[in-house]
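Handout, section B. The chain below has 112 residues.
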Amino acid sequence: MTTALSDERVGWHLWNWERWQQYSRSPGRYPSRASSGIIGSSHLDFDETLAGIDRNNAEATEAVLWDMTPQLRLAVHVTHRINSVYRVRDVESAYAIARVELGIGLARRGKI
């Protein structure tokens, strides 16, 4: 049996996802990398490593949101003002349900 993440952790994942939604589409936001030799691998600094973890968590959040019903997914988008062209009936209730489902979905994906 999979348990859900705490409401505080779900809040962090939504905050991280919202940030990712806002900045992932900005032009010119490429991480700097230094070549490490002939093999062609890259060297990431500590900040870039953490940014990669945050991006991975945001992508997992996005995947869980896409597994939800359109009403729940849109409630999250409307609440966080991400591509919120549509209206959702009883958005507060739908958002509360979406947060619970998000906590379960992220826990199933091994996110903490």
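Note. The first strand starts at residue 34 and ends at 35. Compare this with the example in section A.
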